[in-house]
Each structure stands twice: as C-alpha cells, then as structure tokens.
Amino acid sequence: MFTGIVEERGEVVAVRDLADAARVTIAGPLVTSDAKQGDSIAVNGVCLTVVELTGGTFTADVMRETLVRSSLDKVAAGDAVNLERAAAVGQRFGGHIVQGHVDGTGALVSREPSEHWDLVRVSLPAHLTRYVVEKGSITVDGVSLTVVDVGPDWFTVSLIPETLRATTLGVRRPGDKVNLEVDVIAKYVEKLASPHLGATGRGTAEETPGE
Asked: Which CATH number do you get for residue 143?
C-alpha cells in the first residue's frame, strides 16, 4: 500500500522488451537506499516488485496486464518517473489509500499556470467517472491529489509548487498520458451497495469494463 506522496523523481535506465512483458531498470537512490529483493515500489503510480538491486538502481518486471492498463507501455530510457516506497506502519499517512493498481489512463488536456499553482485538467475514462467527486481523492501518476472540479469526461486538480517541483506533473504537457487510480473505498461501497439498489442501480463492479 502507498500514500501517493512521491519520494523522488527517478530515471528509467533501461527497458527490455520481453514480447508479452517488459523488464525495466530505474535509478532511484532514495527508494533503493533500504530496499531489498521482493519489496514494492510505485513507479508513476504502478506497484512493481523489485527483482534486482544494483548501486542505486532497481529492476522490475512489468506484465502484459500492466502494460495494457498503464502508461508504462511507452516508457523509455531517460524518462523521469515518480517513485514511492510502500508505506511503513507507524508513519504519518500524508495522502490517501493508494494500492498502486492503475484503473486506467487519462491525458493531460490543459494547464493554467498562476503565480503559485497550476490548475490542470485531465481526461477521464467513462468507466471511472462515477468514482470521482469534487474534493475527493484521485491518484495521477502516483501523486495523491484532491479533485477541484469534475465533468462528464474530465476532472481538474491544483498543483502546488512542491508537487510541481518534486514530481513529473510539473513538466507534463497537453496530450501526455497519465496513470489514474480512483479511490478504492468508492469501488467497495459500490459493490456492497449494488445488490440493494435494484433497477435503479448502476450494475455491479464486476460488470464495469476494465476493472
């Protein structure tokens, strides 16, 4: 489990195509400082398992399902990525519950810079819209953010200077693909409530494409 508080911006060192999978090596001195084989590290919001560690870099396997669902299918050597180690028991929980299980991808639609923050609009896949609410939480490329506003196929977030400085969201441009993870609590509530909604319900979680 993660909190969506990015610890450092790493860099992709190498990507090896395995036909139905990929093996990625990423430089991240901070997140590898106490890592060991088998640990989980979120890369742009995708939970990956460390299979190798070498001098400030780690290697992880990315399965076909992850490549299909996330933006990691386009990652290349030299790309910057957001990194976060799994949450440790007993530490402050700064963001919200993040699983590292990407629900889908959106695209950055626009950004409106101001003196102290940027208002960013991101496209929202149709099957995720019901889980996104004003002032709710959403994870964008592994960053825990508060939704400012939401429309039928988009939502907006405000990025403070620290987020702009410390994460890749500071350099994303319109058209860039981003990973989205909605609040898992909303999905559980939907599934638990759906048998009691009858004809007015919106179907069970199992019927939702891409989940």
From this structure: 2.40.30.20
Per-residue pLDDT tens digits for 78-94: 999 999 999 988 888 88
Domain enclosing residue 21, as ranges? 8-85
For residues 62 and 118, membership in a common domain is answered with: no
Q: Which stretches within the chain are classed as H helix?
A: 64-69, 161-166, 184-193
Locate 17 and state its tokens. Answer: 């195509």
**Structurally, how many domains does the chain consist of?**
2
Tell me the pTM: 0.89
Is 205's pLDDT higher than 70?
A: no
Kind of pairing between the strands at 21-27 and 57-63: antiparallel
- Predicted pLDDT of residue 207: 38
* Distance between CA atoms of residues 46 and 33, nearest Å: 20
Q: Which of 58, 85, 112 is the last residue of a domain?
A: 85
Report residue 19's pLDDT band, with 50, 70 and 90 as the boundaries: confident
Hey, which bits of the chain come out as E strands? 8-17, 21-27, 40-43, 46-54, 57-63, 80-85, 104-113, 118-123, 137-140, 143-150, 154-159, 177-182
